[in-house]
Amino acid sequence: MDEDALSRDDVIGKVCLTRDTLAAHPKGFSGWTHLMEVDPDEEVQGEIHLRLEVLPGARARRLRCSVLEARDLAPKDRNGASDPFVRVRYKGRTQETSIVKKSCYPRWNETFEFELEEGAAEALCVEAWDWDLVSRNDFLGKVVIDVQRLWAAQQEEGWFRLQPDQSKSRRRDEGNLGSLQLEVRLRDETVLPSSCYQPLVQLLCQEVKLGVQGPGQLIPLIEETTSTECRQDVATNLLKLFLGQGLAKDFLDLLFQLELSRTSEANTLFRSNSLASKSMESFLKVAGMRYLHSVLGPIINKVFEEKKYVELDPSKVEVKDVGCSGLHRPQTEAEVLEQSAQTLRAHLGALLSALCRSVRACPAVVRATFRQLFRRVRERFPGAQHENVPFIAVTSFLCLRFFSPAIMSPKLFHLRERHADARTSRTLLLLAKAVQNVGNMDTPASRTKEAWMEPLQPTVRQGVAQLKDFITKLVDIEEKDELDLQRTLSLQAPPVKEGPLFIHRTKGKGPLMSSSFKKLYFSLTTEALSFAKTPSSKKSALIKLANIRAAEKVEEKSFGSSHVMQVIYTDDAGRPQTAYLQCKCVNELNQWLSALRKVSINNTGLLGSYHPGIFRGDKWSCCHQREKTGRGCDKTRSRVTLQEWNDPLDHDLEAQLIYRHLLSVEAMLWEKHRELSGGAEAGTEPASPGEAPEDSLARLLRVLRDLREAHSSSPASSPTSEPNCLLELQT
């Protein structure tokens, strides 16, 4: 798209990847793809509800087509809706429904009949169109019915997805509109009931509780059989699983011990992309993101707002003109370098000061994990010559793998809504380098690598002392303090998502009624959705979590505003209510919907349908129904839309993803089992309960077998089943 500030954005071109294309690349599709011209006849969406019957007749059989309703049609008119009608064609004869004005969820309930000849091969074509008074009608999609198949079935009814019209051959302007470089991976997972995953979860938890002295050593075996390319995914899934079981600290402690046991040189500790390093990265993002925002947020915002030119490398300096006593003179390179050093020293000093003040703000589980890391490293590398090694172990994660990446790419860590421009990016990069030097404890190697960073050395040396003092206090947390902090946090119900939203308010009654959106600060916890006038003011509960029945988008035409969602819930008296909330952009809308659906996915009484419009006057704006409490005209989406770091944990999904990974390395697990059991054949049944006790690997193989059988017998292919689908897209 080409963004326009005043008018509607322009379409440049599109890239379309089919599901088959993605399925053909299990490890992900990657490459440059040409943009193509957008053909309105191919941009269709929505479904149509049809009832098709073959009936006996006096001379010949008759084909009856009942056009009942449609949902989620493409809005083709300026008012954010369409004026849809349906055209039914068979053997040269065409019939049309009536036109439903201003609706993307029309209801017709009209029936058409055609004479049907036995053996006729021609298909029945059902087309949806948007009626226009002046210009030509717009195509909304079509369904082609195989009459031969219908003849055999005699009757068929259901929702049919509208398809594009690709009958017209046209020139594809490949290469003339530019290209997009894409990396896309599709994972489609069917998540079974929780009880199916309990044996796997219990087995993994038992291994972690036993630690490195456990009999099976499953965690080391998982690390050994995990390839480099999928190690991050496996680490994240394991970490989230153990976090949900309250064992994240124990899991990471086990990984620390395993890595320390095979590390001989202190300067190579946690420098590789091991399972320990990847798991700790994931842990900090899941458990420490709010903490990172509180420390880095003000500094990052200041860098963006100031937009100062900052450069320390003499080979990259751009000399600018500056004003001096009313006269303009060229600014010297030395002045540019000195001003840049002053700016960076100020930013680095502010960051270190904020960090030193943040000990109490750091989550208890993060502090306890760093305590374990600090102790394990100090036990492995004792002595004065390794005095800094425990500190560097902590900073290798906190500074090098958490703070520095967030400084360089604040948008990826949700610190900013947009990527930085070139000037701000350079400032952030230099600041991140300085933080890395402090995190490396100002080693000679870091000083000689980029000598032009020397002007920052006084601040870096002072920062090293500050950072060591901070880490000493950070890891000084006892078990009792950890439990007390966790108990306090659990009583506060930590926010799942929070931020400013606009809530819809209605004023007056009858013809004088008006509506508007008021800005408030919302907070979603595992207990309620609440709001306040400001982030620091007292919150009022708006909706209890257990009362949420659906969270869905609202049609743009309903309020004349985009990015509006509705939270359907019941009040304390059991009456249905709806809260309309407006987000500032589509990404924020999806994040809120994801969080709301995930925290309420186990609620009783979730709705199967809803109205994407509003009830105005005496009818719904979407489908024009006059019954306010009737069945909705669109289906609800209870599945999660995103995999955000701050989303609530989904234990069953994480267990399914771990099972999927273990299944992919099952052959290697059997090979290991043969080694341990003296050459048993792959696929040989592990010991039965009456025989010698199983080791943990044998139990794992038995669990994988049971899960495979559960998947083969699950109703995933049923039309009513909606398996979790994970679509990961990176552009």
From TrEMBL:
Residues 712-723 have a biased composition (Low complexity). The keyword Calcium applies. Pfam families: BTK, C2, PH, RasGAP. Residues 44-160 form the C2 domain. The keyword Cytoplasm does not apply. GO terms for cellular component: cytosol. SUPFAM superfamilies: C2 domain (Calcium/lipid-binding domain, CaLB) (SSF49562), GTPase activation domain, GAP (SSF48350), PH domain-like (SSF50729). Residues 494-601 form the PH domain. This is Ras GTPase-activating protein 4B isoform X3. The gene is RASA4B.
